[in-house]
Task: inverse folding
């Protein structure tokens, strides 16, 4: 795994914006089946969250889109079991219903 995050956008020094849309993560998303798509997206979430902890980032907005809700549900389930964070819907005015914000508690 490379430490390069092609979809990470630094909003400011303490906040990242991560686009989880598949076309941002892989070259040929149409070649993946549904399970592989979700797995790829969730692996990216895990890498970004771990990197954020290591780099003392305080906030990450994961842009997952609206779609059928499968990715958002998987993201919420994962985050619910992750210590040291709280999460909420991201600012509706900026992201609509398609993003979740993760706040990393100070250690």
Result:
């Amino acid at each position: 795994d490379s430490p390069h995050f092609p979809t990470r956008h630094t909003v400011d020094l303490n906040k990242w914006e991560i686009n989880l849309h598949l076309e941002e993560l892989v070259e040929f998303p149409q070649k993946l089946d549904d399970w592989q798509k979700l797995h790829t997206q969730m692996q990216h979430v895990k890498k970004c969250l771990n990197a954020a902890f290591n780099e003392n980032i305080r906030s990450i907005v994961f842009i997952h889109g609206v779609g059928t809700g499968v990715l958002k549900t998987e993201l919420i389930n994962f985050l619910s079991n992750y210590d040291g964070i709280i999460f909420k819907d991201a600012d509706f005015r900026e992201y609509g219903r398609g993003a979740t914000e993760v706040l990393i508690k100070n250690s």
Notes: Residues 76 and 84 are 14 Å apart (CA to CA). Strands lie at 8-12, 15-19, 59-63, 85-89, 99-104.
